[in-house]
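Lab manual, section 2.4: Encoding a predicted structure.

Procedure: take the sequence of the chain (285 residues), apply the prediction step described in section 2.3, and record the output as structure tokens. A sample record is shown.
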Amino acid sequence: MNKEVKFNNLGFGLGLRPDHFQDIVGAETGVDWFEALTENYMGIPGHGQSSLLSTLLKIRKDYPIVLHCVSSNIGGTDPLDQIFLKELKALIQLVQPAWVSDHICWTGIHGLSSHELLPLPYTQETVDIVSNNIQQIQEALGMRFMIENASSYMAFEHSEMEEWEFISEIVKKTDCGLLLDINNIYVSSQNHDFLAETYIDNIPLENVGQIHLAGHRKKENGLLIDTHDQPICSEVFELLDYAYKKIPPTSVMVEWDDNIPSFDKYKAELMKAKNVIKKGLNNET
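Recorded output:
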């Protein structure tokens, strides 16, 4: 891989949801770019004959698109799904995304998918498994892959390092990109009692190419769950301000996956993030 490649700053984007297609197609939205959930557009016969894919390609004419996966299974011990990679590469050729990403997790075993983002033990063995899978994906796609930190609700007793050390080791071995999910850092910090700022201070920020923001819920037992169905809380915005001051200008987006609001309300969350960053950077000067 070309270690000199950098991720372009696309500005401020939203997760693309079919609920909002009519608000976006052929419209000037004031949003800079959109992130599409990859699996929604893969494996569809006709490559553009289906309504979902054809609509995505219409939006691509007016906006940059990035592709976000949920099933590449980079933490799994199964061999990578070559059919998945072949279909992903075909979609990349059609959409020409700015980049492609997935989560640091495992999703299945023995060819069966759990359809969940499952946690990993933070061990050197797992570093090697994840790194090997990322390197294979990068070679197969011919582009740098981006990995996202997932939210965490449990910890393995035999973990050998902290999550930020685990991520740093993977990046060191693969030179992949980082999709920094600020909400997931906050959720995990509350669930596992660590300082979110410590996490941010100890990951390779020079590899961050995108930031995710979302909402979460608090259960009766105090556990935070990354639900993507609520507005972004003030603590996550504060953490965004802290992180953004430490990294080069980076693409920022809001995602909302359930109880999806109107496009205007969705966009308003993005404008809040934009104002937080602008205010924070102005206060530095």
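Check your result against the sample. The two ends are 37 Å apart (CA to CA).
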